[in-house]
């Protein structure tokens, strides 16, 4: 017979669910490209459902090194992201209302697995785009894997990858999911 | 449980305080170029370091080059030459279909006086209008793109030299004629000058949405020659003033014969009254223009005698006075608009010329300013402290004087023979009073010699103090007449042409490129991108274009690099053809493939590291 979660825990989980849904409206991740002739920088901005920023320009430049063009269509998971996030939010909301401690572990587990899978997926794409370069490209580059966070240099470009608003909201949602663990700690 | 109220209030207050104290609301570069000029050397005043921009654009006419010259002030760096009346291979102007049609076969124009569009007698930075004295045309340059948007020919004119100037809300762009001429340019003996020849003022409208001109109406005047003119501001906003010369009706050797009368006239016209009458149908249709005779509209036209052969007449910033420059009589005359209106009200006329009531000079004139030894005053500009600035063509100087008293405050030599001058926002209702550029006709020994003919010169003068200071001298190609200096932040350019999938003839993806044949017409719907042309992505060689000798070829090219400053050129060897597509632009080149053979095509505007490789072939199969 598991213990009922407190009102505080319930609120925390409701907030977590709300934050999860909110994160859908903000970009999660981005990469900014700087070059001598692009001092203002070019942006790739990733929302959970679409790419934004200077995608056409970046694609145009990338063809010189033989990188595959990317667009919303090249990422088949994009259309499902919002359902996955909303699904997770519903599960966490239900846990909040059911107030069962065992289920809380399930929720935290799902959230953690989702996060790890997400980062693995990004890493996979970055590797694919950076290493599967067209051998006929006019400019030959050694294959490379841009980092998920931080700086990298490719030819005349310095790239900066970073998590942004949506990801921070996700982080906050995760913390809100963890708070009940602390609230329900054995006293 | 109301604890959250103080907590929330505290947070909000904290954020607000942090915003107030630490947030950076400034935008764009700001540095020494925008600082006060006090305590700077002349070199420092004009030095705009990399990363900073000039405070002003100067839009200068290019004279008989038919172009607009764009400068930055105070650096005096030339930013761009914008082709207006003249074809320009560097930009494909006059080569692509749209601009070729706009030029209508002309290969030059004579652009004298730019006029920036105005709202409430202030430059609004949207368009600049240009006159072609040589071929009776008017042009509009869109200041979002610095491209010529429209050109219109005006019938019945004899060279709109006295334009271009705009009424205070750009209701009309006014274009008075220089030469009197029989209407429609018909044949008439010069012996019939007084009867058959007419002076025409074109009142042109411009639709800023469709970017098209429309000839509103024309005003028929006596066969005098009309020179520089101006539109009123505020109290005088319904009026325009024009200088006249050759009231002698000389038909030969004007140098002598048009300089005999001691007095010529300033003509005052009420454009608003005439507009109403034209709307009521009081006009005669002549060669497609609605022509109105102002002498038949009471209260719409008056003349004031003025010192002989005046060149410029300019309303003061507050619109209460207008100042005429004598050119051949060495004085500036200040006229009171209010006194002129009073004389009109009292019907205080001394004379009538061609049915035009003449106002009494002594009653309308407020003062004559005649600085000793100052010869050839041409044109007046203003500052923010009630001073006027006149260029003196013959004595090669700029004179600064107080409008209210006529007191001469300072004189400064310029090198040499200035025509117009241009002060920062100097003909608006609120001049800035910091810079004046003297547009000199003769440079002689100012620069390294380039042969018998030298460049013209522009001299930058600091007018922020009582004493004027010559700061910089800049050579310039022939030949600026007037220029206007506008605050840089009033001009809002676009970085690229927005992608518009509905634009006729545009193609935005490689898969959609195609070559279509309709009889002997070949239409290419192609793209230019770094670093290739694609005419038909599905063909064996996407950058090959094969046609038959005699085919009419249309190359509709879209630049799909939506990236600032990535312009592609398109030149065809031995075909005397070259044009360009700016980022996001679609342009059509039309030609007849009359020469059989193999003709390389290449990108002429350096675009990328592989620009040299951006090429293709035009193959013309012999008949």
UniProtKB/TrEMBL annotation, chain A:
Instruction: Write down what this protein is called.
Output: Uncharacterized protein
Q: Where are the transmembrane segments?
A: 7-29, 80-98, 103-120, 162-183
Write the record's keywords in alphabetical order, separated by commas. Membrane, Transmembrane, Transmembrane helix
Source organism per entry reads: Cytobacillus solani
Automatic annotation (TrEMBL), chain B:
Tell me yes or no: is Metal-binding among this UniProt entry's keywords.
yes
Superkingdom of this entry's organism? Bacteria
* Gene Ontology cellular-component annotations: membrane; periplasmic space
InterPro entries tied to this protein: CcO_II-like_C, Cupredoxin, EfeO_Cupredoxin, N2O_reductase_N, N2OR_C, Nitrous_oxide_Rdtase_Sec-dep, Nos_propeller, NosZ/Cyto_c_oxidase_sub2
**Where is it predominantly found?**
periplasm
Where's the Cytochrome oxidase subunit II copper A binding domain?
Answer: 519-623
Which one of the record's GO molecular function terms can you name?
Answer: copper ion binding
What is its subcellular localisation? Periplasm
Where would one find the signal peptide in this protein? 1-23
Q: Does the keyword Ion transport apply?
A: no
UniProt keywords (A-Z) are: Copper, Metal-binding, Periplasm, Signal
Pfam families per UniProt: Cupredoxin_1 (PF13473), nos_propeller (PF18764)
User: Mind telling me which PANTHER family this protein's record contains?
Assistant: CYTOCHROME C OXIDASE SUBUNIT II, NITROUS-OXIDE REDUCTASE
Entry protein name: Nitrous oxide reductase
What organism is listed for this UniProt entry? Cytobacillus solani
């Amino acid at each position: 017979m598991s213990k009922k979660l407190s009102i505080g825990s319930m609120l925390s989980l409701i907030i977590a669910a709300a934050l999860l849904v909110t994160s859908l409206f903000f970009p999660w991740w981005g990469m900014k490209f700087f070059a001598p002739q692009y001092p203002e920088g070019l942006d790739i901005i990733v929302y959970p459902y679409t790419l934004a920023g200077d995608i056409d320009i970046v694609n145009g430049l990338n063809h010189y090194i033989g990188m595959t063009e990317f667009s919303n269509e090249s990422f088949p998971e994009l259309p499902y992201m919002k359902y996955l996030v909303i699904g997770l939010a519903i599960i966490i909301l239900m846990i909040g209302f059911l107030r069962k401690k065992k289920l809380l572990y399930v929720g935290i587990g799902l959230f953690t697995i989702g996060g790890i899978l997400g980062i693995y997926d990004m890493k996979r794409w970055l590797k694919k785009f950076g290493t599967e370069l067209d051998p006929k490209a006019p400019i030959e580059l050694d294959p490379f894997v841009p980092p998920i966070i931080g700086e990298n240099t490719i030819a005349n470009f310095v790239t900066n990858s970073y998590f942004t608003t949506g990801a921070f909201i996700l982080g906050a949602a995760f913390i809100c999911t963890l708070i009940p663990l602390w609230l329900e700690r054995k006293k | 449980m109301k604890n959250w109220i103080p907590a929330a209030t505290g947070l909000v207050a904290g954020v607000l305080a942090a915003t107030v104290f630490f947030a950076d609301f400034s935008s764009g570069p700001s540095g020494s170029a925008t600082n006060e000029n006090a305590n700077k050397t002349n070199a420092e005043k004009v030095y705009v370091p990399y990363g900073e921009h000039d405070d002003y654009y100067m839009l200068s006419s290019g004279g008989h080059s038919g172009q607009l010259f764009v400068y930055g002030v105070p650096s005096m760096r030339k930013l761009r030459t914008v082709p207006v009346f003249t074809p320009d291979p560097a930009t494909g102007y006059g080569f692509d279909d749209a601009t070729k049609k706009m030029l209508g076969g002309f290969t030059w124009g004579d652009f004298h006086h730019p006029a920036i569009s105005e709202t409430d007698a202030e430059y609004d930075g949207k368009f600049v209008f240009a006159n072609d004295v040589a071929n009776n045309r008017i042009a509009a340059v869109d200041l979002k793109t610095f491209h010529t948007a429209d050109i219109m020919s005006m019938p019945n004119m004899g060279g709109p030299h006295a334009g271009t100037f705009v009424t205070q809300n750009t209701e009309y762009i006014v274009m008075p004629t220089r030469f009197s001429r029989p209407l429609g340019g018909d044949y008439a003996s010069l012996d019939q000058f007084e009867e058959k020849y007419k002076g025409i003022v074109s009142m042109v409208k411009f639709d800023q949405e469709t970017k098209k001109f429309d000839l509103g109406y024309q005003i028929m005047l006596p066969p005098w020659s009309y020179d520089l003119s101006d539109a009123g501001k505020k109290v005088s906003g319904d009026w325009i003033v024009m200088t006249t010369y050759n009231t002698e009706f000389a038909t030969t050797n004007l140098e002598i014969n048009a300089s005999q009368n001691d007095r010529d006239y300033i003509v005052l016209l009420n454009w608003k009254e005439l507009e109403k009458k034209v709307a009521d149908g009081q006009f005669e249709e002549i060669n497609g223009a609605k022509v109105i005779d102002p002498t038949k509209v009471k209260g719409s036209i008056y003349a004031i005698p003025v010192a002989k052969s005046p060149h410029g007449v300019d309303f003061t910033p507050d619109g209460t006075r207008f100042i005429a420059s004598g050119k051949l009589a060495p004085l500036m005359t200040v006229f009171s608009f209010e006194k002129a209106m009073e004389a009109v009200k009292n019907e205080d006329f001394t004379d009538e010329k061609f049915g035009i009531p003449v106002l009494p000079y002594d009653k309308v004139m407020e003062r004559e300013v005649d600085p000793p030894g100052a010869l050839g005053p041409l044109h007046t500009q203003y500052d923010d402290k009630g001073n006027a600035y006149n260029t003196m063509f013959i004595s090669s100087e700029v004179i600064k004087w107080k409008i209210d008293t006529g007191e001469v405050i300072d004189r400064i030599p310029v090198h040499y023979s200035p025509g117009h001058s241009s002060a920062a926002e100097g003909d608006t209702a609120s001049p800035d009073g910091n810079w004046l550029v003297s547009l000199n006709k003769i440079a002689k020994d100012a620069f390294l010699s380039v042969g018998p003919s030298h460049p013209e010169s522009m001299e930058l003068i600091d007018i922020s103090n009582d004493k004027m200071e010559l700061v910089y001298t800049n050579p310039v190609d022939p030949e600026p007449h007037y220029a206007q200096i506008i605050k840089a932040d009033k001009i809002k350019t676009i970085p690229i042409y927005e992608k518009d999938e509905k634009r006729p003839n545009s193609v935005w993806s490689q898969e959609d490129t195609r070559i279509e044949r309709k009889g002997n017409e070949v239409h290419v719907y192609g793209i230019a991108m770094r670093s290739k042309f694609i005419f038909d992505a599905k063909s064996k060689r996407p950058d090959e274009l094969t046609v038959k000798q005699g085919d009419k070829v249309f190359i509709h090219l879209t630049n799909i690099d939506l990236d600032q400053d990535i312009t592609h050129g398109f030149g065809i060897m031995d075909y005397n053809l070259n044009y360009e597509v700016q980022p996001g632009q679609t342009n059509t080149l039309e030609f007849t493939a009359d020469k059989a053979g193999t003709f390389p095509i290449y990108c002429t505007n350096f675009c990328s590291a592989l620009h040299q490789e951006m090429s293709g072939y035009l193959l013309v199969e012999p008949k």
